[in-house]
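PROTOCOL LOG
Step 1. Enter all chains and additional molecules of the complex.
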Amino acid sequence: MQFERGLVIRNDGPRMWAQIGSEEVPCVLRGKLKREAQRVTSLVVVGDEVEISRQPDGTGVIEAILPRRSELSRQGFHGYVHVIAANVDQLLFVGSAQQPRFKLHLAERFLAIARRGRMDAVVVINKCDLEHENTLKAWAAPLEQAGVRVVFTSIMTGQGVDEFRSLLAGKVSVLAGQSGVGKSSLVNSLFPDANIKTNTVHEGSNKGRHTTTTSRLYPLPGGGYLVDTPGIKSLELMEEDTEDEAINDLYPEVTEAAAGCKFRDCTHTHEPQCAVKQAVNLGKIRRERYQNFLRMRGA
Ligand SMILES: Nc1nc2c(ncn2[C@@H]2O[C@H](COP(=O)(O)OP(=O)(O)O)[C@@H](O)[C@H]2O)c(=O)[nH]1
Ligand SMILES: [Mg+2]
Ligand SMILES: [Zn+2]
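Step 2. Run joint prediction.
Step 3. Record the structure below.
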């Protein structure tokens, strides 16, 4: 049987749509893939290239998933990896100069995520109209020294908007960055008619609430795609506070003892006057629990 090649452009959990030519075809997984999917969550994700057999009613059955060039993923507990999107060319970390102020550590976290997933990474500093040029250059310097491209933009003055547009052309890109930095503004100013949503799910709502599970690839007028996925937001939260919170919940005895550490940001590894290590030495916290806690924290 002759299979057709498709690109998964929309996925809302069990349901998937693949683009075949200019058609958007609803698809299901072949039974043998489904059994695998029970062991691996999100077996097929947006950006996957798949082989499809067409049914008489026009819908498709995904028969095979082609090898991925890259993976945007989130690392969970026990080495478990959750893939958010496949075959993404580049991760664009968008920060703003002010409101909110640029955070180098967030940029660096996403550079690490990009490297891990074999994606290119670019840092965009938006709202450049709100900060002095010298400050902007100082933020960019360590990134540029590490070989990372930094693009300065402003919706207000139009600075860098053409550069941003050419960055997206012909590529599959995912935009990451805190709420309020101007991701939607940048995209809307470039593609006013395209009705593209980026990281829409959490805006104006509380963390983790009202989440949609729909991920999609938006085709760009100039070629290329923008990835919209709630996963990118959960990735930020996961690697920031949710992960720590979840781990703290799992080790209440460590959390309790940690209140007595000398340093508020104590990692309970090498710091002096660490109440957690003291509790371990006194036998109040089991050593094995302590070691597992450190392993979970990636220490
Ligand atoms: N001064 C200034 N404000 C901007 C710029 N870009 C976006 N904003 C404003 O920042 C706010 C948040 O923008 P938005 O696109 O919703 O951010 P998102 O949450 O990252 O999608 C809006 O009020 C925008 O008008 C810019 O380049 N300069
Ligand atoms: Mg937005
Ligand atoms: Zn400590």
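Step 4. Note key features.
The pocket of zinc ion (ligand 3) is lined by residues 258, 261, 266, 268, 271, 274-276 (CB under 6 Å).
The chain is about 30% helix and 25% strand.
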